[in-house]
């Protein structure tokens, strides 16, 4: 099967969809599919592409314009390379394959769905409500011409249904992680604690882009209640972003200077050590307008390191966190319950260890990229045979 994989987000750029695309393409190619990636160009892309076992076609366009760029000559490319399937990482690029199929290309069109992109409406702020409505209607018509969707969570599937996609054209295939990259390593965790001078303090850990929707401020608001029970508690915040200064100001206002540590950007080869240093991983994302957590791969990464996790009920996070088994779910602004759950896990070592082990077992059995890619491969083959 010859597959074109079209994605606006691909390494060396960083992010969740970039990881999703790279992990799946690598495995689908290893399973026998002949995969060609179409993606925007980025600094360092040429060096990366030379190291890959599959072909990557790069385009010198901003990410949002990839689909428009492919409109020109794409049908000829599909026919010349005997492409059977075009898989889109985001719906915005489907315009290229839909047009080619309408003009006679013999292809099946598949599309992933993550969440945030399904809220996209560049005309929503226009003075004309009619323009916004026309955009939504046009998107709905595009969706109807996609042969099958692969949302990463049940929440994302519900967004597709709300947008008019029939349930029989939807197969939920969740995200995964790499348990060979993220794994229990007590030695690495202790070494990092020693290096940073944290000693035996109880550590709550988050890593994300620092933006308001990630709920870092909610965790800061919960910290005074945590400190009442665990006076040595330390909240380690990994990552950078536009909300960083506001969060640092909030730390000062709450008098938490001795209980919060900002790491800045964490190098890839240090990610596993940071997870292993923690006692509990927390990220209570909230939904603000179009910003929502479609899944939450970081919960799987923490679980893969045998760490218990706490997430929010927002978006697709309930698919990533098995409530009461691999961690807890709380309201995205419920500081009282959040502090109680953090204290519970830091006080009950048996519960914490049990949740962490169940989390890794779940990653090993269901939520790893090998399993995810195999499910996608199998379903795609079934659809091709229908």
Automatic annotation (TrEMBL):
Q: Which residues form the Glycosyl transferase family domain?
A: 190-361
Annotated signal peptide: none
Glycosyltransferase subfamily 4-like N-terminal domain location, by residue? 15-181
Taken from the record, one Pfam family name reads Glycos_transf_1
Q: What is this protein called?
A: Glycosyltransferase family 4 protein
| Taxonomic source organism | Reichenbachiella agarivorans
């Amino acid at each position: 099967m010859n597959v074109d994989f079209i994605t606006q987000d691909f390494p060396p750029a960083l992010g969740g969809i970039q990881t999703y695309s790279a992990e799946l393409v690598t495995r689908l190619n290893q399973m026998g599919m002949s995969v060609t990636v179409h993606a925007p160009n980025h600094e360092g892309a040429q060096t990366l592409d030379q190291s890959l076992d599959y072909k990557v076609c790069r385009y010198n366009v901003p990410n949002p314009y990839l689909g428009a760029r492919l409109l020109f000559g794409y049908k000829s490319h599909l026919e010349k390379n005997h492409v059977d399937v075009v898989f889109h990482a985001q719906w915005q690029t489907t315009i290229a394959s839909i047009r080619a199929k309408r003009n006679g290309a013999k292809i099946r069109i598949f599309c992933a769905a993550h969440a945030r992109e399904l809220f996209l409406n560049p005309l929503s702020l226009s003075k004309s409500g009619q323009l916004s409505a026309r955009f939504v209607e046009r998107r709905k018509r595009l969706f109807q011409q996609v042969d099958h969707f692969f949302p990463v969570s049940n929440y994302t599937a519900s967004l597709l249904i709300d947008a008019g996609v029939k349930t029989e054209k939807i197969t939920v295939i969740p995200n995964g992680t790499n348990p060979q990259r993220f794994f229990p390593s007590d030695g690495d965790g202790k070494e990092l604690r020693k290096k940073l001078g944290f000693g035996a303090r109880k550590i709550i850990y988050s890593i994300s882009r620092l933006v308001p929707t990630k709920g870092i401020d909610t965790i800061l608001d919960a910290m005074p209640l945590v400190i009442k029970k665990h006076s040595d508690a330390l909240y380690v915040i990994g990552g950078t972003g536009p909300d960083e200064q506001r969060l640092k100001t909030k730390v000062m206002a709450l008098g938490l200077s001795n209980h919060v540590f900002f790491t800045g950007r964490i190098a890839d080869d240090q990610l596993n050590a940071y997870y292993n240093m923690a006692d509990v991983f927390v990220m209570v994302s909230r939904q603000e307008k179009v910003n929502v957590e479609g899944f939450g791969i970081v919960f799987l990464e923490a679980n893969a390191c045998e760490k218990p996790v706490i997430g929010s009920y927002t978006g697709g996070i309930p698919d990533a966190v098995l409530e009461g088994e691999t961690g807890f779910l709380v309201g995205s602004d419920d500081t009282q319950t959040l502090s109680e759950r953090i204290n519970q896990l830091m006080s009950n070592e048996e519960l914490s260890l049990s949740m962490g082990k169940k989390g890794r077992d779940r990653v090993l059995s269901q939520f790893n990229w090998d399993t995810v890619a195999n499910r996608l491969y199998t379903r795609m083959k079934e659809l091709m045979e229908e």
